[in-house]
Design goal:
This protein is an alpha+beta fold. The protein has one domain. The chain is 55% helix and 21% strand. The longest helix is centred in the N-terminal third of the chain and has 17 residues. The radius of gyration is 13 Å and the shape is globular. The two termini are 23 Å apart.
């Protein structure tokens, strides 16, 4: 991935975070990552509940 593409992805993520609620932002970020990186079959996020990682798939 080129530096320009990385910057574009980070800017899009920042815009999503600034405009949406947390749940909507996570869903939109996951959708965007799947569109931009088609070689990934799955996108999700890990959250910590205490010391335990909890998987959140979108």
């Amino acid at each position: 991935m080129t530096a320009e593409r990385e910057i574009a992805v980070l800017r899009e993520i920042r815009e999503i975070i600034e405009e949406e609620s947390r749940e909507e932002a996570l869903q939109k970020i996951a959708d965007m990552l799947r569109r931009r990186f088609r070689h990934y079959a799955w996108v999700g996020f890990y959250w910590l509940r205490g010391d335990e990682p909890v998987l959140r798939a979108y």
